[in-house]
Specification:
By secondary structure, chain A is mainly β. Chain A is built from no helices and 12 strands. Classes of the chains: A mainly beta, B mainly beta.
Chain lengths: 112, 114
């Protein structure tokens, strides 16, 4: 079945450092790919999405490119802030399968 | 729209008691999901509905858990009897049919069973 694999955390960075959180997936057909963010004490919020190969999703300085050849959707940000500290979830929604499949989440800690 | 609304936000109950969690999806959404989040197991899909009909309940941990969706604007997740290992944050999410559409999450209910 469909699955998502994320790098384990926590990822600890200093403010203004470059961020990469790896995400790879297994799915039949052409799924849509998503990154969600969860701030402490809150629900999951959509951060960005890409619905077809080579699409780049972007929001709040975060970017991720849908790479079908490597089945990846890595999250990047050029300069992180303390306020980016949160848990990040990679997810997919496959053709014919209406549920979202989530990765295990990666906790990001940014220090001043 | 106010988004997905869950109630209560926090629930503390004694072991053996019945607990009912409530969810109001976004108007017009035809899919509703219940998730459970714990430190040990992460985010788990418990059950989901399409047009008020349960489609997949394979994630429901045991018979003590049940979920209903009597109409398009309301769903409940019930635990009877509750146990300390049920302590978790329970999320409800809703979405529209279509592979490109994302799910919208509620704020969650933090359940503590003592």
């Amino acid at each position: 079945g469909d699955s998502v694999t994320q790098m384990e955390g926590p990822v600890t960075l200093s403010e203004e450092a470059f961020l990469t959180i790896n995400c790879t997936y297994t799915a039949t057909g052409y799924p849509s790919l998503f990154w969600y963010v969860q701030y402490p004490g809150e629900g999951l919020q959509l951060l960005l999405k890409a619905t077809k190969a080579d699409d780049k999703g972007s929001n709040k300085g975060f970017e991720a490119t849908y790479r079908k050849e490597t089945t990846s959707f890595h999250l990047e940000k050029g300069s992180v802030q303390v306020s980016d500290s949160a848990v990040y979830f990679c997810a997919l929604r496959g053709v014919g399968f209406q549920k979202l499949v989530f990765g295990t989440g990666t906790r990001l800690l940014v220090s001043p | 729209d106010a988004g997905v609304i869950q109630s209560p936000r926090h629930e503390v109950t004694e072991m053996g008691q019945e607990v009912t969690l409530r969810c109001k999806p976004i108007s017009g959404h035809d899919y509703l999901f219940w998730y459970r989040q714990t430190m040990m197991r992460g985010l788990e899909l418990l059950i989901y509905f399409n047009n008020n009909v349960p489609i997949d309940d394979s994630g429901m941990p045991e018979d003590r858990f049940s979920a209903k969706m009597p109409n398009a604007s309301f769903s409940t997740l019930k635990i009877q009897p509750s146990e300390p290992r049920d302590s978790a944050v329970y999320f409800c999410a809703s979405t529209l049919t279509g592979v490109i559409t994302e799910a919208f999450f509620g704020q969650g209910t933090r359940l503590t069973v003592v």
